[in-house]
Amino acid sequence: MTSLTKDELFRCRICGYKNSVMVWGPNGDDPLYSFAICPCCGTEFGYEDFTLNAIHANRKRWLDKGAPWFKPEKKPAQWDLEEQLCKIPSEFR
Question: Which CA distances in Å does 50 have to 32, 56, 58?
Answer without folding.
Answer: 13, 11, 11
